Amino acid sequence: MEKFEITILGCGAALPTPHHFCSSQVVNIREKLFMIDCAEGVQTQLRRSRLHFNRINNIFISHLHGDHCLGLIGLISTFALLGRTATLDIWGPAPLIDVFQPQISFFCNNLTYKVNLHEIDTKSREVIYEDRTVTVETIPLKHRMPCCGFLFREKKLMRHIRRDVINAYNIPTCYINNIKAGMDYTLPDGEVIPNESMTTPADPVRSYAYCSDTMFKPSNAEQLTDVTLLYHESTFMEKDKVLSKKTYHSTTVEAAEMAKLANAGQLMIGHFSARYEDENLLLEECRHVFPDTILANENLKISI
Length: 304
Fold this sequence. Notes:
By secondary structure, the protein is α/β, with parallel strands linked by helices. It has helices spanning about 40-50, 65-70, 70-80, 95-105, 165-170, 175-180, 195-200, 240-245, 250-260, 280-290; strands spanning about 5-10, 25-30, 30-40, 55-60, 90-95, 115-120, 125-130, 135-140, 150-155, 160, 185, 190-195, 200, 205-210, 230-235, 265-270, 295, 300-304. The strands form four sheets. Strands 6-5-4-3-2-1-18 form a seven-stranded mixed β-sheet. A seven-stranded mixed β-sheet has the order 7-8-9-14-15-16-17, covered by helices on one side. A hairpin with a 5-residue loop joins β11 (about 185) and β12 (about 190-195).
């Protein structure tokens, strides 16, 4: 299967600790790198993860709290120092342009490349990025300020060619893509070779959803139905539910309930409050509700 990999650069909450950086991730889909959130320390983490800076062409910012975006202007500056020429597209809620355009003009006024800032509507579900292999769709979240998650979904893949059958019938190469797309093939004598004889089923379509920061929002389950991997914030343990409501965050049990409602393939929790020294306690709470749960951790790579 083609690469679909998530690298965790930071999974702590607002207060950085010796154990955790603030939120940032990189999604690698067929060697195209997409960054989600860009907190302080992101450049160090990119180097530790051996990810190539200049292969990041799109950055998605969930919201404008500092623990999700304060590393952005430094990364933009470093791109220029590395001689970048490719356009960089940055997506995030308003006032993304008002906040970052003056900083770019002041700190990065001699850029060697173009930066496009795109403001997105956090209250609606819409596709904001699309290429021939993947779409990125916003997930409306409920936080103290405009905030959205992001759903990465592969497009439907083509079927796999059975080379032995293709060779046996001497089918010309120019027909291969049509056969991969599901078409039958008609031989010169009129015999129809059914597609199922020439191909095997396509790989399953994979998806990844990033939900941070948010209160528990059951209505999102429909959009997240059957997601392959769900990253959901679980800032607090269930015993601190009152605090989670006050700060518009989720508990471990709520993150697990969302995975269960969405019929997710796997749940990864993160955005851990610095108050917890042993995050295995958070993991245990989640697994009581949704057994297939894992902890995010810095420099963790997960292949879907």
